[in-house]
């Protein structure tokens, strides 16, 4: 029997909504050692964006004209985060919608775990958001979840 992503999805996931403030996002996720992907959902639980550690680092980058963002070597300049001017008000003024990415990779809960494994390896991801047919957020599936299930199915654990 081919197992589905929905069989092993982690549904205990903290989500935020599009107008959740940066301050609240940081307070909510500070107990993690490494910032996970943060799903941003709308009022109908539809997954509308993802916030990653890179999105938070981008806050420290100075604003640049769009044309300069297309030059690859300019992205390699070091960011001096201690010199960036940030006001305390930014914690309330910046909201999830300002920093989330809206183009992200997700997998349907009806997909096979083999497909999830293939997508994660192909796109160099450790986890993927899982959605249902209506694009509602279900949870996350991680590479370790898939590997663990295969070991279990083979009788190793």
Describe this structure in words.
This protein has helices at 5-8, 22-29, 53-57, 90-93, 96-99, 113-122, 143-153, and strands at 16-17, 38-41, 47-51, 107-108, 127-131, 137-142. The chain is α/β, with parallel strands linked by helices. The chain has a single domain (5-153), classed as CBS-domain (Roll). Helix 2 links the parallel strand 1 (16-17) and strand 2.
Rounded Rg: 18 Å
- Helicity level: 25-40%
First-to-last CA distance: 19 Å
Structure summary, number of beta strands: 6
The global form is: elongated
CATH architecture: Roll
In spatial order, strands of the major sheet run 1-2-3
Structure class: alpha/beta
Short description:
The protein has 157 residues and is an alpha/beta fold.
Jot down its keywords.
alpha/beta, single chain, three-stranded mixed β-sheet, CBS-domain, 157 residues
């Amino acid at each position: 029997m081919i197992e589905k992503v929905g069989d092993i999805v982690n549904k205990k996931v903290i989500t935020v909504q599009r107008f959740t403030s940066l301050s609240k996002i940081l307070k909510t996720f500070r107990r993690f050692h490494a910032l996970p992907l943060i799903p941003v959902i709308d009022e109908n639980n539809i997954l509308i964006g993802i916030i990653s550690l890179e999105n938070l680092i981008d806050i420290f980058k100075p604003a640049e004209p769009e044309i300069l963002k297309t030059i690859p070597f300019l992205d390699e300049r070091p960011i001096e985060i201690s010199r960036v001017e940030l006001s305390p008000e930014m914690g309330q003024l910046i909201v999830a919608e300002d920093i989330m990415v809206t183009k992200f990779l997700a997998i349907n809960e009806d997909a096979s775990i083999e497909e999830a494994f293939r997508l994660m390896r192909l796109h160099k991801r450790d986890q993927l958001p899982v959605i249902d047919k209506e694009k509602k957020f279900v949870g996350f599936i991680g590479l370790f979840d898939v590997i663990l299930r295969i070991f279990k199915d083979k009788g190793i654990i």
